[in-house]
Design brief:
Largest sheet: 5 strands, antiparallel
Number of domains: 1
Radius of gyration: 17 Å
CATH class: Alpha Beta
Low-confidence stretches: none
CATH architecture: Alpha-Beta Complex
Strand order of the largest sheet: 8-7-9-14-15
Strand content: 25-35%
Order of helices and strands: HHEEEEEHHEEEEEEEEEE
Distance between the termini: 20 Å
Bound molecules: 2-amino-4-trifluoromethylsulfanyl-butyric acid, cobalt (II) ion
Structural class: alpha+beta
CATH superfamily: Creatinase/methionine aminopeptidase superfamily
């Protein structure tokens, strides 16, 4: 989601065990949809075809796209190619060998929302871009490790940023992760950068969508004239991974695994 503000202490809704039961189902459905969609990614497919498949897979699971119509968003998934960071809109563009594409999907299953993203190689890609994808995915797991009761929210942010920068890449500032559950976007905002030990203390029952967006070059981004798609200012590639996680007494439970 788009960064609104870095507010200090926020009202973060806590989920009950019965909420979590449905959120687990929602997350399982989303991960099945994501896996099926990932298998369809190959040179020659258009992003509109990907969107149609996503709609079909989501419908089959008796769920609904959380993105379609959200603030006027026109499609069921986000398909962000190469220098596109997030919110790429499916159209007649054809994927070609050496592209990378991030698939971002949010679903609403019986009023319970989960959100996830992965970045995939189309055909054969450059070694450095492969490293960008690997570092972005690992940075998500570095953040998730820190998502446990007693830690501060910004411990997640700091864990992601330090892992990414240690590996020579940069984190996007203008878009952030978010609370999720009964709505697509709930409090708090979860930046992928910042010092440790700040912001609210994490508690059992919080559900968070953690989503590092990592650039090969500089962190600066801008929005295309369609009003949605964020791209890197330097036009170098960007990768994105996201999971919805629940904070439990044992640590983070990944709902969208
Ligand atoms: N995961 C992204 C986010 O939380 C996707 C939102 S797409 C939108 O911002 F269409 F719903 F905005
Ligand atoms: Co999200």
């Amino acid at each position: 989601m788009k960064l609104l503000s870095l507010s200090a202490q926020e009202m973060i809704p806590l989920k009950s065990e019965s909420d979590l039961e449905v959120l687990r189902l929602s997350g399982k459905i989303l991960s099945r949809v994501m896996q099926k969609l990932a298998r369809s990614i190959k040179p020659g497919i258009t992003t509109a075809e990907i969107d149609n498949l996503a709609l079909e897979f989501i419908k089959t699971e008796n769920a609904r796209s959380a993105f379609k119509g959200y603030r006027g968003y026109p499609a069921h998934v986000c398909t962000s190619i190469n220098e596109e960071i997030v919110h790429g809109i499916p159209d007649n563009r054809v994927l070609k060998d050496s592209d990378i594409i991030s698939l971002d999907i949010g679903i609403d299953y019986r009023g319970y929302f989960t959100d996830a993203a992965i970045t995939l190689a189309v055909g054969k890609i450059d070694l450095l871009i492969k490293k960008l994808i690997e570092v972005t995915e690992t940075s998500l797991y570095e953040g998730i490790k820190l998502a446990k009761p007693g830690n501060h929210l910004s411990d997640i942010s700091h864990g992601i940023q330090s892992y990414v920068e240690r590996n020579g890449f940069s984190v996007v500032r203008e878009f952030v992760g978010h609370g999720i559950g009964l709505k697509l976007h709930e409090e708090p905002e979860i930046p992928n950068f910042g010092p440790p030990g700040e912001g609210p203390v994490l508690k059992e029952g919080m559900v968070l969508a953690i989503e590092p967006m990592v650039n090969l070059g500089r962190w600066e981004s801008e929005i295309l004239p369609n009003g949605w798609t964020a791209v890197t200012k330097d036009n170098l590639p960007s990768a994105h991974f996201e999971h919805t996680v629940a904070i439990t007494s044992k640590g983070a439970e990944i709902l969208t695994k």
